[in-house]
Amino acid sequence: MYRTKAPFYQATMLNSLGAVWQGHHKRLLDVGGGTGVIAQAMAELFPTDEVVSVDLIDRFCSSLSIQTQQYDGAKLPFADGTFSAATLNNVLHHVPLAARSGLLSEIARVVDGPLYIKDHESGGRLDDARLTLMDAIGNIPFGGMLWARYLSRQQWETLANESGYRITARAVPLQYRQGAYALIFPNSLEITMRLEKISP
To answer: Can you cite a GO biological process for this protein (predicted)?
Structure first.
């Protein structure tokens, strides 16, 4: 796919993650890695020593040098505190609503440090429709998941708090799309955040 279409969206995503990234993380866990391309790029470009990517289905590119692993979607196959940070990149809106807090809590179990989330934010029904169409355009070529439910800003705050996190940084929306495409799918639909654990 990237041989015929420049990965402009993916490059912008990495820049957005870089804007909220803090410090050096020895081991980074990428949850819901898909093809693994973003995790591989983070291993090469971000200040981290090791990246491990997990997903429900093995769609990982065969050329990756990072470690990849399938898991059951419920319990991450790692001991408590194995990682120093984690990422969820355009994943959480595909997770059933009732399972989202549990997923974040499970990530908190195996990760001692921050959680970086790149996802979408909806302001209402029109944004939901835009995001549904945009997800279909982006995921169908890669065999990605199409079912999704999107959160508002307040719902993101609530989810973080319910899961033992607080949102400590939000990236300024970058230019994922230009021209008419940006009018149809505003760049404000894209959000990138750093979440940190709430101290007990």
So the answer is: methylation
d(CA 29, CA 51): 6
| Cα–Cα distance measured from residue 195 to residue 104, given in angstroms and rounded to the nearest whole number | 10
What is residue 18's DSSP assignment? H
Among 66, 70, 114, 127, CA closest to 88: 114
16-30: per-residue pLDDT in tens?
999 999 999 999 999
Q: In whole angstroms, what is the distance from residue 129 CA to residue 140 CA?
A: 17
How far is Cα 127 from Cα 106, in angstroms, rounded to an integer? 29
Closest by Cα among 90, 88, 105 to 150 = 90
Q: What is the pTM of this model?
A: 0.92
